[in-house]
Design a protein that fits this description.
about 250 residues, alpha/beta, Rossmann fold, DNA polymerase, domain 1, six-stranded parallel β-sheet, elongated
Length: about 250
């Protein structure tokens, strides 16, 4: 019997291309404001919205509000209250329409989850974020039936990289860290808390905003993942390897 009882995944930039989708949607929002009358240089607007996202985080729901405020307060625009509301509403509508239209799993996700579903191995998603937004992604991606448990930071009151979020998941399944594999794209928010729970850590290279080349100079040795992959089908070779080590240790 395989010693691995649970496989966990991050959501954004692990199971789908969140970075590219969000960037594309934000640009659509800016273009929509310009198309309905906002007088601003497009490149200047894109630089400003990127600056706001970096400052307030990608999960903020107020990016366009802050964008309009900065235009009025710092750039000396004179956008009326009515036009402010109109621009923001149009941008938000365009943003969500773009995300709904283009949200898509990476090509290797369904086959991986279906293969795991055929085994006795349980699956979980451990993700930061606002519950309604994260559940919406999971439902739109149509993977809710393939995942046994969804753990969302704001639902529990613990955010990554706090290792207690991962131990909470382990306790839910009554499994040990060494019986678990976790796949994530962020060294400090995924790999570090996994390792602190004795979970076999797998760093997946998806090319997202947190993707990095792992070198001894960049990442402290104790933070280095146990494995690195670029496709989820490599996960099964890892579990075979762990299985062999498990049985060798029993001899």
């Amino acid at each position: 019997m395989c010693p691995i009882k649970l496989v966990g995944f991050d959501l954004d930039d692990c199971l789908f291309d969140s970075t590219m989708l969000s960037q594309r949607a934000r640009i659509e929002g800016i273009d929509t404001m310009i198309n309905i009358g906002l007088k601003i240089n497009r490149q200047k607007a894109l630089i400003l919205i990127d600056e706001i996202v970096k400052e307030y985080g990608s999960n903020s729901s107020k990016h366009y509000n802050y964008f309009i405020r900065r235009l009025n307060e710092l750039e000396k625009f004179s956008i009326s209250f009515i036009d402010q509301v109109r621009y923001i509403a149009a941008a938000v509508m365009a943003y969500h329409a773009q995300k709904i239209k283009h949200i898509k799993l990476y090509d290797d996700v369904i086959s991986c989850l279906e293969k795991l579903k055929e085994t006795s191995i349980k699956t979980a998603i451990i993700t930061d974020g606002i519950p309604i937004k994260q559940y919406e992604k999971i439902l739109r991606l149509d993977i809710d039936e393939l995942i046994d448990l969804v753990v969302i930071s704001d639902e529990i009151g613990i955010r990554k990289p706090n290792p207690k979020l991962f131990s909470y998941c382990l306790n839910k399944f009554n499994v040990k860290g060494h019986e678990t594999v976790y796949v994530g794209d962020n060294i400090y928010k995924d790999i570090v808390p996994a390792k602190l729970n004795d979970i076999h850590s797998v760093y997946i290279h998806r090319g997202g905003k947190h993707d990095t080349n792992i070198t001894g100079e960049q990442i402290p040795k104790e933070f280095k993942p146990d494995y690195e992959i670029s496709k989820l089908d490599e996960l099964f070779d890892i579990m075979i390897d762990l299985n062999k080590k498990f049985y060798i240790g029993k001899v």
